[in-house]
Amino acid sequence: DKAMFHWQPKPHVLMVFLIFTNFLNYLDRGIIPGAPTEIDAFIIKCGFDSPDTMLGLLQSAFIVGMSLLMPIFANLTHTRPPFLLVAIGLSVWIVAAILSGFARVAESYYMLLCARMLSGVGEASFQVVAAPYIQDNAGNRLGFWLGMFYTSIPVGTCVGYGYGAIIAGNIGWEYCFFIEALMMTPVILCFYGLPLDIANPKKEVVSIAFPGGASSQDWVEDTDSLQRNFLGEDITSLKQGNFPGAWEGASS
Q1: Where does the Major facilitator superfamily (MFS) profile domain start and stop, copy by copy (predicted)?
Q2: pLDDT tens digits, residue range 4-26?
């Protein structure tokens, strides 16, 4: 399988892209609470008498798309290239950002609400892949890379508040979404360019002895058969210590 264009980054380079993407995701979440006065004025202009309630819905709307689609994306990583799913999901995220900006032009609160829900779809594809990839590829610097990844959450949110306030107060809050969509575009192109068979490294199996002579390997073999019968899925990759099927399935 070939990607649209090819580049083969080292794991730490790809992890930098993941951290920056996470930063942009949370910057996006900070825009609306960072510009409450301007958003309230927009809501009132759309004909609502209780802007605070409508503002709260906008801020939490992404959870709808994220909650509904995250299990679906998580399941798809077993059979589809994980980073291709990330690229597709973040493409939806860009569309959501652009629609959020055009909602002001159309003076449509419901368009903005739907766009915020749609942004959660894009974030869902990213979140199910990013942290597992870092965990599998960071090696002995796992703490550092996971720390940087999760630090981008409060940093992105904090910057998003200031970013939303400054842009909304000077040129209009819709440009907050247009600009972030522009910033995300080259990142998505890089994800599209990754090899479709990119996978995590193999891990050594650790067998733990239990009282009575049983071992953890015996337990895994027993539960392997049980779960195949119950779920209809082969979890042999668990015995190899891999992230459950996501990367191995993608390379087949």
Answers
A1: 14-252
A2: 567 788 899 999 999 999 999 99
What confidence tens digit (pLDDT) does each residue in 25-50 have?
999 999 999 999 999 999 999 999 88
Six token digits for residue 68: 């509904």
Q: How far apart are CA 94 and CA 177, in angstroms?
A: 9
Q: Letter for the amino acid at 66?
A: M
Strand, coil or helix: what is 215?
strand
Structure-token pair, residue 147 = 């720390």
CA atoms of 222 and 228, how far apart (whole Å): 10
Domain boundaries, the chain: 11-199, 207-240
Hey, what's the torsion of the CAs at 149, 150, 156, 157, to 10 degrees? 160
Of 17, 25, 32, 18, nearest in space to 176 by CA: 32
Q: Look at the pTM and tell me if it is higher than 0.90.
A: no
Residues of the chain with pLDDT under 50: 1-3, 200-210, 214-252
Q: CA distances (Å), 194 to each of 5, 32, 85, 149, 189, in order?
A: 8, 33, 11, 20, 9
